[in-house]
Amino acid sequence: MTTQLIARQASVPQQHAPYAPTHAGLGLTPTVGVDVPITAVFLFLFILGAIAHMTIFQRNKRRGHKFIMSGMMFGFCMARIVTCIMRIVWATRPTKIPIAIAAQIFVAAGVVLLFVVNLIFAQRIIRASHPNSGWHSLFSRFFVFCYVFIVITLLLNISVTVDSFYTLNANTLRIDRDIQLYGQTVFAVMGFLPFPLVLGGLVIPRKTRVEKFGSGRFRSKIYILLLSTALLSLGAAFRVGTNYKTPRPRDDPAWYHSKACFYIFNLTVELLVIILYVVVRVDMRFHVPNGSRRAGDYSGRNTASKKVSDDSLRTAGNASDVGATGLGRIMSEGTVFDEAPEKGEEQEKVVENGVPERTRAISNGENAV
User: Which of 15, 184, 230, 247 gives 20 to 30 Å between its CA and that of 200?
Assistant: First the structure.
């Protein structure tokens, strides 16, 4: 009788919000026996990733090496730590729908930080290979638009995900699903976007030499970015592709709803990117000078030109000061470039009023030998 009562209670739909989902989702409902050990391993690995990226960020900060992407990857690791914790809690309390909502939101939200990091790397590669077009205001605004678009889409996706748990209206659920598909499609496109940007920059003929930045070879930077983009695109494409499929009931999931697919195409590919960025030291390879705003700033050409210009102005000012005394002086090449005089070169001893000793001797009618 107890078994029949439990079955009857399970068959009765939930009468209050938030409502349990009726369709199968990626990873299904976590269980203590399977999901807790696996998620605990990922939790430990993401903690190590957070420690590594924050350590790199703090060391660079202490020596004036600004690289905020290390802080962003630390933030991503912290988001994934919360994701793992929420999934473990959900496994121990499978009937607590608010916990399920929070777990699903963190799964969808965290990866956008890696999308933004890769877009920043792609922008730096394009600016280095095509300085004139890469620093154009329209191109810069395109990236700003992408960042704002990602944030707006993320907020919209979170709102409809929560709303889908608090309504039974079929039309509202259809609208929520359409917006979720739109959001996942946008994330898949943004995750894939570095591919056409970087490859397009390689195909288009360059008008200037590459402005190399950071450490390591320029082609190595391209390989690293394309590899991480491929990993993130694989996960994003799998998620959006499976969600476009016709929804399946919770008790009849498809193979792509399995826990293995969830951990491989979500946490595993993201963890590989985090490890890759620590091992190859992207904080050194993709670093650019602080305050870079135009073509030539990456290579330091503008800084060198400004220094030469300042030195020239300083030299001209010194020459005008000497000319004011009535004794104009022609600057030698060694003086202009701050070079030491060659050995054996005659040195003039300057006395009061800035008049050289030999000149004073000649003016007094003495034989200056």
Answer: 184
